[in-house]
Amino acid sequence: MSKKPIISIITVIYNGADLLAGTIESIIGQTYPAIEYIIVDGESTDGTVAIIKKYADHLSQWISEPDNGLYDAMNKGLKMATGDFVWFMNAGDHIYAPDTVEKMMKKWQPETDILYGEVMLVDDDRKELGTRSATTKQKLTDPLHWQDLAKGMVVCHQGFLPRREIAPLYIENNLTADIDWVIKCLKASKHTTATGMILASYLVGGLSKQQHQQSLKDRYFVLKEHFGFWGNLWNHAGILWRKVFN
What we know:
Elements (H helix, E strand, L loop, with lengths): L6 E7 L3 H12 L6 E7 L6 H7 L6 E4 L5 H11 L4 E4 L5 E2 L4 H6 L8 E9 L5 E4 H4 L24 E3 L14 H12 L3 E12 L5 H19 L1 H17 L1
Parallel strand pairs: 1-2, 1-4, 2-3, 6-9
Antiparallel strand pairs: 5-9, 6-7, 6-8
Helix pairs in contact: 1-2, 6-7, 7-8
């Protein structure tokens, strides 16, 4: 990869018209020139498509069609991507600053398989609440290994860019498919580069109690697949201890 690497940025959306323009502006305003921008819409009915069409000249590809949920839509984006690295920046997410990609790619080396960094949590008014590492118990590690995800996500997909050729499709019908995807990418990576940067701002949102309970079950089965029954049982005992006593 001797040329300037192409970053395929993928935005997945469904009925998020009020969030989309800000996301698009944060991407098309980047100073780094080698960006492929893809939007995958789930056939929205709230004006999302009109916004996509407004920015169509700035997009490499876009589709609007029914899908089978978030991870099906993200898989469509992966299949459409042609760049060297892939980066999911969904509706409500913003690249942190106009020169973020340019500065990030100065950290890139030809052997780099993954670039990663922090995300800034923001509220509905885009007020900064602090980085994910500063405001949660999941701390981003340097270096980052797949074993670091034994107790859950320590890196957000908004701050995680794998080389496209090592990025698998997401498993579907699992609310924690992002953990599985990041672990698989890290297992396939020979050289993972910490940028030491805040790469994106992430709009904080809550899951319903029902979704939260399901996500806990899904996470258990994903982590058991990677860490084994006993290792996963021990790690989840640690998670429970942390929730009760911290």
